[in-house]
Amino acid sequence: MSDAPMSRPGETAGWPKLVVKYSTDEANIAPLLPPGLQAGDPIVTVGVYCVPILGEPEYGISVKVEASWQGVAGQYNLGMGIDQEAAVHISAELNGQPKFLCDIDYFRLGDQIGARATHQGYTFVEYEGTVTGEAPIESEPLTEHEWWTKYSRAIGGAEKEYDFAPHVVDVATTFKQVHAETLDGELLLRDSPWDPVARYLPVDEVVSAQLVTHQATARDISNAGALDPDAFWPHADVIGGSRWPGDRGGPKR
Q: How wide is the angle at C-alpha 141 spanned by C-alphas 135 and 146, nearest 5°?
């Protein structure tokens, strides 16, 4: 049996991450990926977390799909809703991280787990579940790759012109699994024009749901190479800071 993570009374940042994986139709994935990224298994990962950022707890939610870049398997991040305004713009400016402001409710009460994400007045993800026991963990460190995109369209908005052409950002994180618990519950995706998870990536079947504690040992954020700027152009207009298809920064009309 692994050692359970320890925390001090009243401490919030550093809670285990809620990780829910579900399958969707494979035809849903490719249209969301910039040309150059290849779709992997049709698995969507929804993560809800509370971690220390800028000296205070940051609540957040991420939605990722399996994708590879130049033969390296990883996950393409479609959006990260967080409750810290300070980290939104600078994360996008520096590294292309797809962050936007979002209200997150996330709690554990005994063995009951609850999570909810609300943006622009729409609650788009909900999860309620019960801890059913410990899950096996990997004894060796793991390295995962997460893909972001960084680009800047030209001042004035000229067609297919950029001040910084699109590139893929590789976020390579090496970590050790410390503790994991399995959950039995229900994932509910609600339709939202601002976070169209239910519309673009509807649930076929929930594959797994866990509370996971990781200990990161290394994290490297690097420019992984250029994307075809013309082929990328239809993907340049997104909803807010996410990577969902948009229209002048808002939902598609």
A: 90
Question: Domains in the chain and their CATH numbers?
Answer: 17-139+177-214 (2.40.400.10)
Is the pTM higher than 0.90? yes
Instruction: Determine the pLDDT at residue 103.
Output: 98
Exposure letters 161-187 (e unless 16+ CB within 10 A, then b): eeeebbbbbbbbbebebebbbbbebeb
Cα 197 versus chain centre, distance: 12
Dist CA 120 CA 198 (whole Å): 16
Instruction: Say if CB 65 and CB 79 are below 8 A apart.
Output: no
Kindly give, in sequence order, each residue whose CB lies less than 8 Å from that of residue 7, ignoring residues fewer than 6 positions away: 14, 15
* Residue listed under structure tokens 């939202």: 192
DSSP, collapsed to helix, strand or coil, labels residue 31 as helix
Phi, psi of 235 (to 5 degrees): -95, 0
Q: Which helix (H) or strand (E) holds 229?
A: helix 229-232
Please, which pLDDT band fits residue 3 given cuts at 50, 70 and 90? very low
Q: Tens digit of pLDDT for each residue in 186-215?
A: 999 999 999 999 999 999 999 999 999 999
